[in-house]
């Protein structure tokens, strides 16, 4: 189901959002970040207490794009083959056959990823990076598009295995999901206890793949790339950017994946807005979600209760975005033009 030529990208994404919001109440920022991840082909790490529609959002979105959806509940007794699949011996034929695991889906929800041991976490993160699985010497590619949304529960630490920093870095963004407002919760109660809502598919995975290719073609001015580089560099060598007091709060700064994530995310935000070029606010809008999980804070920062978000805000106040990076007017059209 390829969208008709008259449909612009914003119109298609608006229809997609409309279908999802027929089921999911509120969580506008979270929904936007899920769409950004889809367009930018990145993965999401979501932190929020249970019951905030994380599973419902991904499942509904999968229906709206005619994609496959799988959910894995991570537990301490999980083994890697439970995710990627294994070889099964058939006694009747005397041959082995391959049984593929639940990671072979367009949208994969890894629920409470920090409840599984390191081997299982590594197996998932390898699939996220390589987008393929090797079983008994045979390589199997996961379907395209492929987006993983992993959740963490911030209120429970007993029986959890925190993700190592090097593995967390594989996630493009870490999004914080908060409680709904009283008005939103009222609507949630009405909707959940009322008749079930049927989702109408508005696109398919082929249309989404075309949008992903279009996203990679969005123009990003070199000045914006330099802006992202400076923001990331300030977390590694704060003194060079007149932020010497942050040096004692940061053990390790963000990796180059943060710079890449900002640029790819800015492209997706621009595409959602109907533009073929990114603006400084697109890059700035991605900074917190892209960097908060990549900063390794020192014991001093933890003791003083300084959060990664607070440090990111300090960096953003110090490093100003470029003035008029598109002053030449080279890209003044819209996506649907």
Automatic annotation (TrEMBL):
GO molecular function: ATP binding; ATP hydrolysis activity
GO biological process, one term: regulation of DNA-templated transcription
Domain Sigma-54 factor interaction: 13-153
Key words of the record: ATP-binding, Nucleotide-binding
Pfam family, one: AAA_3
InterPro entries cross-referenced by the UniProt entry: ATPase_AAA-3 (IPR011703), CbbQ/NirQ/NorQ/GpvN (IPR050764), ChlI/MoxR_AAA_lid (IPR041628), P-loop_NTPase (IPR027417), Sigma_54_int (IPR002078)
Entry similarity comment: Belongs to the MoxR family.
Alphabetical list of PANTHER family matching this protein: MAGNESIUM-CHELATASE SUBUNIT CHLD, MOXR FAMILY PROTEIN
Protein name as catalogued: ATPase associated with various cellular activities, AAA_3
Species, as recorded: Rubrivivax gelatinosus (strain NBRC 100245 / IL144)
């Amino acid at each position: 189901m390829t969208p008709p030529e008259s449909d612009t990208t914003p119109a298609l994404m608006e229809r997609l959002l409309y279908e999802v919001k027929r089921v999911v109440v509120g969580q506008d920022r979270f929904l936007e970040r899920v769409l950004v991840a889809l367009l930018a082909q990145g993965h999401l790490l979501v932190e929020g207490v249970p019951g905030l529609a994380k599973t419902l959002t991904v499942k509904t979105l999968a229906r709206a794009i005619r994609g496959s959806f799988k959910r894995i509940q991570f537990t301490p007794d999980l083994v890697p083959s439970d995710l990627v699949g294994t070889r099964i011996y058939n006694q009747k034929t005397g041959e082995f056959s391959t049984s593929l695991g639940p990671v072979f889906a367009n949208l994969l929800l890894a629920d409470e990823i920090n409840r599984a041991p390191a081997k299982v976490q590594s197996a998932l993160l390898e699939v996220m990076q390589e987008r393929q699985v090797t079983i008994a010497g045979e390589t199997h590619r996961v379907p395209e598009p492929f987006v993983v949304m992993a959740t963490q529960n911030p209120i429970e630490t007993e029986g959890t295995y925190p993700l190592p920093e090097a593995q967390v870095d594989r996630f493009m963004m870490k999004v914080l999901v908060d409680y709904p407002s009283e008005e939103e919760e009222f609507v949630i109660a009405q909707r959940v206890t009322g008749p079930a809502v049927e989702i109408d598919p508005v696109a398919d995975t082929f249309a989404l793949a075309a949008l992903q290719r279009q996203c990679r073609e969005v123009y990003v001015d070199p000045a914006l790339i330099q802006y992202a580089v400076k923001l990331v560099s300030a977390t590694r060598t704060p003194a060079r950017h007149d932020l010497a007091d942050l040096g004692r709060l940061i053990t390790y700064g963000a990796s180059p994946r943060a710079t890449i994530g900002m640029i790819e995310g800015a492209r997706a935000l621009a595409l959602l807005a109907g533009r073929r070029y990114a603006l400084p606010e697109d890059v700035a809008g991605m900074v917190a979600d892209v960097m908060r999980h990549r900063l390794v804070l020192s014991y001093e920062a933890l003791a003083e209760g300084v959060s990664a978000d607070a440090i990111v805000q300090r960096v953003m106040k110090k490093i100003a975005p470029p003035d008029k990076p598109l002053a030449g007017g080279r890209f003044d059209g819209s996506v649907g033009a």
